[in-house]
Amino acid sequence: MNKPKYFYKSEExxxxxxxxxxxxxxxxxxxxxxxxxxxxxxxxxxxxDYDDVTNSINxxxxxxxxxxxxxxxxxxxxxxxxxxxxPNTWIFATGSTNVRTRLYRMGITNNxxxxxxxxEVYGFTQFGIWEEFVVGEDYEAFLITKKQNIQ
Amino acid sequence: xxxxKLNSSKVPVIVIDKKLEQFRDKVLFPEKLEKANEILSKxxxxxxxx
Lengths: 151, 50
Description:
By secondary structure, chain A is of the alpha+beta class. Chain A has one domain. Helix content of chain A is 25%, strand content 36%. Chain A contains 3 helices and 9 strands. In chain A, strands 1, 2, 3, 4, 5, 6, 7, 8 and 9 form a 9-stranded mixed beta sheet that branches. The longest helix of chain A has 18 residues. The two termini of chain A are 24 Å apart. The relative contact order of chain A is 0.16. By secondary structure, chain B is mainly alpha-helical. In chain B, 40% of the residues lie in helices and 4% in strands. Chain B contains 2 helices and 1 strand. The relative contact order of chain B is 0.07. Chains A and B meet through strand 1, strand 2, strand 3, strand 4 and helix 1 of A and strand 1 and helix 2 of B. Strand 1 of chain A pairs parallel with strand 1 of chain B, so a sheet runs across the interface.
């Protein structure tokens, strides 16, 4: 995972991350959060633009800062950091729109060889089941966990 | 951690910012969490490999 990424900060439990996207639209603060779901050891991954003025998050905005691959690589890096701290967890992720979910799929596809060195990745199909991630298949959501958690 | 382990680690060196603690107990993306819980409550996790 040596793709360009942004420097980021976190708090001691690595459940919240903050970084700044820099591009044609200027500096945009981004937040990544891992939130405990109702299923034991499963955390939801989400990220979006943080507005300092309103103190709110927007995960629907299309920033168009020209750095989507770098943003995705940064978010992917936070997954490594979070799982390093919480190795028994599963990470659930889906986009707030279908377009964003496809962006996540693209990010996984582009890094699949690296990801599969340490993790298993699953996609949630239109038929309502989990399957091991297949390049080119359309998924509604994703799960990732360390290989040790499924053996 | 040794320099060798730092260099080979896939996790970068991360700066801890105490200001981020204010978000620790807040759900910043409630709709996303709700969607996650909806899927997980219906389907659960993938079957483990045998």
